[in-house]
Amino acid sequence: MSSDLETKQHFDLAKLGLEISQVFEHIDAAALIVDQDRRVVAANGLASDFFGYDNDELVGQETRVLFDDPADFEELGKSRYNDRAEGGFGDRYVVRYRCKDGSVFDGATVGGAVRPVEEDAVYFFGMITNVSRQTAAESALNRLHSITSSRDLNFEQRVDAILKLGTEHFGLPIGIFSKITNDQYEVQQAIHPENALTPGMSFDLGQTYCSHVVNADDVRMFHHVGQSEIQTHPCYKNFGLEAYIGAPIFTDGERYGTLNFSSPVPAREFTGQDVELVRLFAAWLGHEIARRRDWRELEATRAELERLATIDPLTGLYNRRYMEDCLRTELDRVKRYNKQLVVGLLDFDNFKNLNDNYGHDTGDDALKLFAKVSSEMMRETDVIARWGGEEFLILMPETGAAGALKYLQRLTDRVRKSDFHAGDVEVKLTLSAGLAIAAQDDTLDTLVSRADVAMYEAKQAGRDTIRMSSED
Length: 472
Fold this sequence. Notes:
By secondary structure, this protein is of the alpha+beta class. It has 3 domains: 2-130, PAS domain (Beta-Lactamase), CATH 3.30.450; 135-295, Beta-Lactamase (2-Layer Sandwich), CATH 3.30.450; 320-468, Alpha-Beta Plaits, CATH 3.30.70.270. It has helices spanning 2-24, 45-51, 55-58, 70-79, 132-149, 155-170, 210-216, 234-239, 272-310, 320-337, 351-358, 360-377, 401-416, 444-460; strands at 30-34, 40-43, 88-89, 93-98, 104-114, 123-130, 174-181, 184-191, 202-204, 220-222, 243-251, 254-263, 341-348, 383-388, 391-397, 421-422, 425-426, 431-437, 466-468. β7 and β8 (184-191) form a beta hairpin.
């Protein structure tokens, strides 16, 4: 009787194995049936392919050997694969499996107990799909998000991180971020196992596989160039690169360059996910380049606005607002460090007559002449500003009275001797100037006020002269 039962069980298992092979042979998943001892009863051909075992080796094998982590085997035995398990299939789960050759893969698994009718035995059925590339793609997307959202990385560091991510994901050791101008291919940043590529290196575009990307304006890839239609390409002849995947980088709708990865040895065939990933990497670079360009233009505009806010539009000299800020700063240095500081206030003589007799354009030309002459003569530490109307204020740090007087004398002499005409009429331009030396208790108003009084005294003395403040 016992012998008959064993024969029947053997027959049933053989029959079950045959049914498994027939029913599940053509599905895109590994199918396994295991008994209560969790030993393989039957498997389809794809299961053998996945795990690298012949069917004869797989049948009778305890499924423990198929798990990369023994803890997963134990945990699933407690939760799903035991004689107390209910019939039907539980939720899909992903576990790391180990093949006969030691390689591993991520398997999405659906499985559960099967109780044949009129039998007390319990079998367990499982279907496994290799999702390693999917999980790798998800991991790459998570890392990309982490890289692009990090506030601790600048643009160059982000690019470097993306190049490293791409070389790891695609299994290609060379990664290049390039800029293409006309037919020139220039390396912007690169990763190379021998550091053979450095920023600024330039090649003819036609000598690179990126020429195919440019011609197509889309991703191009070759996993084994030596056995492809481009085996005569100059890049293969000159550099021996067997595998390549590259995508164009666009900024504001215009091609900037390429992001590409390559290897001197053949690679696995690229998938649709690989195409989408390299396209996504390149798209981020394009957006970031455009954003950086916009930011630089914004910064340049802001800097220009700040400059214009401090510049007198007629003369190009600093305006009164800027000079007041400089004066306050220098007066603070006088008080804190006992530094020398002299200011000079200059005013054109008879400027109203110049405007009345020859027109305001001539008056403007006179102001511009002063600006040109004073800018040519000014010292590095001096600050010159249009104080208002035809008045100019000169700030002279680290300067004593004698030096300031000498400098203003040379400046007013130069203006007087300038060749200045109102139409065909030669006009002599003169200025009156007042000097004031900063004291420890001076404010902006008190210092400029003394220079203004001294300048008025120069006017009273007959104009075209310089006076020092009597208080100094």
